[in-house]
Amino acid sequence: MKKVGIKFIIFLGFVAGCTFTPKDKFINPIKQPPNTIKVVVDIQDPNFQDPYPLVAQTTFNFTIDSVSNPIIDNQVLLDGNPLTGVIVSGRKLSFSLNPNTIADGNHTVKIQVKLDTKSGSLADLLGAEYYGVEKDFTVIVDKVLPDPTASLTFAMENGYLTLNWGKLNKTNFYYTIVHNSANLSGDTIILDPTITKFIDYGYVGGTIDYTVYVNNTTGSKQIGNGNYYLKPIALNFSDDSDFSEIISWNNIQINSQNVSIRIEGNNTIKNWTRVVPITQSLISGDTLVMGDKDAIKLTIQRNGFKQYQFDSLVTFTSNGNFSPFQEIVSTTQPKLFTLKGDIKRVGFPVFSKEDSLSGHFYVSIAIQAMVISNDGQTGMVLDNLQKFYKFNPNDFSQFSSYPLNYQGPFPGGGSLNISTGYNANNISSISVNQLAGINYVVNLNPTDIFNYQPRNTAGILDIASGKIVWSDTTNNSSPLISSDGNYFVMDDSAQTHGLIYKNNSGSWNFLGKVPSGTKYFRNNSSTELLVVTSTNISVFDLTKPVDNNKNFSFVRTFSINQNSTVANVGYDELSQNIYIEYLNSTNIGSNKISSIKVYGIQNFNYQGSGDAILNGANGPHIYVNGYHFLGIGYANKIR
Q: Please, are residues 469 and 407 in contact by the beta-carbon 8 Å criterion?
């Protein structure tokens, strides 16, 4: 009988479907902990150590690679006792060892294999000729787990989060690292007991908790835990003059390989999404309307690690580019005068404060109304104590408060009682020849101050002399003066018609009537008057004849679109354009979309539009000389 002994170099190694670096010997990355760990050992790993620590149920694969002859007989002995359940397939032999069924200590495993010689001899045919192969090694069973020797520490190394702990005094275990965060729960198992660090290649920022356990068949023991937080980037926001968003980021704290950043915006108009590599560091977002804000959802993720992501919610508000205001008055210079407690002079088109004198004009209480002549030479304000002030728009250091005088008798008798003063109600306009349309209260019984009859009085004030040159004590309106001072219009006391008066050498003569509504004179060289109602805008030429009932007929008219809510209609003398403000019927939370549509007054041709977001604090939204303005401090050209 021919027996052949062959010396094999045996390699045993771990094989486990793992996506991590093989040298770290991970299994089950980011999964729920299994009930038992089953290890597969192949005869291939040059790092296999004898003795071998048996810490979990392990399947050993013994494969004959040097010859192709099949196994015809085998025996596996543990401390001289045959093992059952040995499986043979071709040249591969497999068997399992479970430390739960083996006492603590060192145990010898011996593998005996017979291989068919396939020589064709009679002995071979009778099964008496074979090659003999033997392999033995030692397994160590130790069910007492080691104690921790150091606490868990965290560090970013090469842009990856790394956990470190001290070396343990035994190797009879495997590690379980439990992860927990807002987007992630599960565990990673490390089979190599000599490892003292764990590199979390998927982590891209945020808060995450880790607990490290050592385990074997008898149970587990915690050796450390802790949490870590990282803000992976510094996020920045800006917008250009057209309120186009620019979202950028820098100070990247994580390894940027295979990392993408997803930014989802949700502004009032629409939603948008961009996904780019994190190394791009810049994206163009969406175009915001004036005063809008964008709710940004930021997600950072590394390709191949779907369980991990960094989430952040950020709200960006478009940057204002103009001084906050309550009212804007435009003049032909052209300049803007903004009103917010005091008056500032601002130039076109860069919207910068024009001179150092602007801060000199100050009224100690809130300003209720302001008017400036079209040539920019004369200004008046009305404060909340019902007093008039006049000022020089070109020199804000000069202003005054003064009583009103009256030239001529009051209609119906009486006179203005200078000693008891006056209360101002409103101021509507100033002409270039310094006539102002105002409304104020007078005392018609000056001899009895305890029983006087106060009357709201519509008047024309000559600012140069400080005298009233025309008045009507039966009217609550304020006369609207044309820019050249040749006409004024005022609603009658019943508010049913607008009454037109013409100045003839200081005497005001009644010309005729127009419909009631908001009124604007076109400019200082035109005799046209605009009347705005809830449904249309009509233009009247005051040089045209009236009918038998003294009514002017419009020379052209424009219907206001009623499909949307009309919030405001205005006229700008500088550009000679009318504007209509529409509010979107659908509210977005407490916000409304305000759209201004601009039309030329000569033929009502469409000029453009501008959108803004309105809430209780943002208004007003108005148009001046090719720009639309929002009260919280925004300005942009109409589109």
A: yes
